[in-house]
Amino acid sequence: MVHRSVAAVDGWETRPLMSIEIIEDSERLIGMREEWSELLADSDSDCLFLTWEWLTTWWKQLSGERKLSIVTVRSRGRLMAVAPLVVRPPGLSSVLPFPALEFMGTGSIGSDYLDVIVRRRQDDRAIVALAECVAGMNRAVELEQVRRGGCAAMAIGRILDGRGWSVQEEETNVARHIRLAGRSWPVYLDSLGAAHRYNFNRRLRTLRRDYELRFERTVNEEDRRPALARLIALHGARWRGYSRAFHTANHLRFHEEITRLACERGWLRIYTLWLDGEPVAGLYGFRYGAVFYFYQSGFDPAYARYSTGLVTMGLSIESAIGEGVEEYDMLQGVERYKEHWAREVRPIGRIEFYPPRMRGQVYRRAMELSRAARKAARRVLPKKLADRIAARREFARI
């Protein structure tokens, strides 16, 4: 680890005295649970995907060859800010010839709203200290899955831009969400499109008429493992090899650990729809604060004609309303079924900072070539394969 104390950073006031530390070893990270959680709760970036539980589990199971480079800022020993960064080696998810900084949680695990964590009322001083440290590393910084228009990390970019760095921002996806504060289930249902509301009610009536229906919510450790196993099996049945959510042993270990930790914190929610004692659909999410995060789902294709996935989604929203959730976040993705349930849209993006002079120009040009190559590959994807993927996605819609 690297320690540095500063009273001022390139002329910017940072009083009282602040110390900067770069954490590079796992043991130090593991020991930060309580102060990390306290800081996150006192920040505007507070969300499930920035919790110590989520990011340390990602680090242990899915970080690969990356190296820790977490930047912390303290004032008189109190944690004021954390930039949860790692160093990505050359060639990993990129054609860059140099290592680059990126957020912990980046990649296939689906972490949305990644950001730096800065204590409220201390933003300017802590952000300046983080920017000074990042500038000293002199690496490209590529930050994915950030909330556009509400990302604290962009303040670092503005400071670096004033020091000759190249700063870029672009929208890459959207996240749909439902505002539920003060709304009852009947009121929310009435807000949906007439056709979708009718379809949900008709499907639910049919299932209750033809089967003994049970909708189960798993929140405790005793039932966690069997509920997770059912969800993974149903997800696999739904996608038949097309999904990458649970496709490696490391991904499975991630979900085993994060669901255990989520149980400890009271966050875990796994819903199962049972028909005549058989699990036919499931939904996996987290209740964190006033927000429910819909993470994954699955259903048995043998019951596809009953739209069991659609029914499970609706019942999970009803359950969230029943426990006082103020927002149901469907997270990023442009799947059509999300439009039927959620009207509000939150843009997700990527921001990049490239160092000045020749090194930064090489970084930037390499990234442009990498993206151009990926776009070209998508354009020449064999039509038959593209049609098969599109058909599979359409079949799997909730």
Question: What does this entry look like structurally?
Answer:
The protein has helices at 26-30, 33-41, 52-62, 123-137, 153-161, 185-191, 194-210, 221-239, 249-265, 308-322, 336-341, 357-379, 383-395, and strands spanning 2-9, 12-23, 67-68, 70-75, 78-83, 85-88, 100-103, 117-118, 140-147, 166-179, 213-218, 268-275, 278-288, 291-299, 327-332, 344-354. α3 packs antiparallel against α9 and α4 (123-137) crosses α5. The protein has two domains: 2-174 and 347-387, Gcn5-related N-acetyltransferase (GNAT) (Aminopeptidase); 181-325, Gcn5-related N-acetyltransferase (GNAT) (Aminopeptidase, 3-Layer(aba) Sandwich). The protein has 398 residues and is an alpha+beta fold. The strands form two sheets. An eleven-stranded mixed beta sheet has the order 3-6-7-9-16-10-15-14-13-12-11, sandwiched between helices.
> How is the quaternary structure best described?
single chain
| CATH homologous superfamily heading of the largest domain | Gcn5-related N-acetyltransferase (GNAT)
Roughly what percent helix? 40-55%
- Strand fraction equals 25-35%
Question: How far apart are the first and last residues' alpha carbons, in Å?
Answer: 47 Å
How many domains comprise the coordinates?
2
Number of strands: 16
**Reading side by side through the largest sheet, how are the strands ordered?**
3-6-7-9-16-10-15-14-13-12-11
The name of the CATH topology of the largest domain is Aminopeptidase
